[in-house]
């Protein structure tokens, strides 16, 4: 079998550029090609190409400062997109899609890999965006909707509490059961109408909640019905009454 001329001369042709490469490509210890930069030099009447490895390790986005800056940038983009949407009450389907895409980018840089093992989850959180129609109550006149909604979680006592403010101050408390390090099963126990009239929750008042992002300032969660919840920290010291 005839040996291709490029193997006789040791020169390889790049199909993408048409340049001839002399010698062999540099390899890393893992066997993967190192990023390279081609620099052309002239010697006499002949041209040749040198392969020079120029790379930095680790890349900026892998450093601690780089990750922190990326998280900050993505969070800011998400918060700016949420701001005009009245916690989601005025969000169009396109708005909801955009918020979901931005939320997934934030979730991808979650610094807390096992939220339920972290104290960051505990405390009182203010709801700033959701896709849940039952919480938003968008079909009601605006003056009958809760101005602010809070959710509190105490992992050590396995308690959860949802609270509304003006005009009705309704609330509900329940129990949580960890299913893994990110997800809990929720069983609501007692509703309080107007903040003080107790009503036992029906047995069907159950669900699941997965915490997909949490840090000192922001928490993202997704429910078992596909709803997205975005909350900001309000009071990290708050304890749910037992």
From TrEMBL:
Residues in Plastid lipid-associated protein/fibrillin conserved domain copies: 72-232
InterPro entries reported for this sequence: PAP, PAP/fibrillin_dom
Primary location class: plastid
GO cellular component, one term: chloroplast
Keyword set, alphabetical order: Chloroplast, Plastid, Transit peptide
Subcellular location as annotated: Plastid, Chloroplast
Keyword Chloroplast: yes
Keyword Thylakoid: no
PANTHER family referenced in this protein's UniProt entry, alphabetically: PLASTID-LIPID-ASSOCIATED PROTEIN 4, CHLOROPLASTIC-RELATED
Sequence similarity: Belongs to the PAP/fibrillin family.
Protein name, UniProt field: Plastid lipid-associated protein/fibrillin conserved domain-containing protein
Organism: Arabidopsis thaliana (Mouse-ear cress)
Taxonomy of the source species: Eukaryota, Viridiplantae, Streptophyta, Embryophyta, Tracheophyta
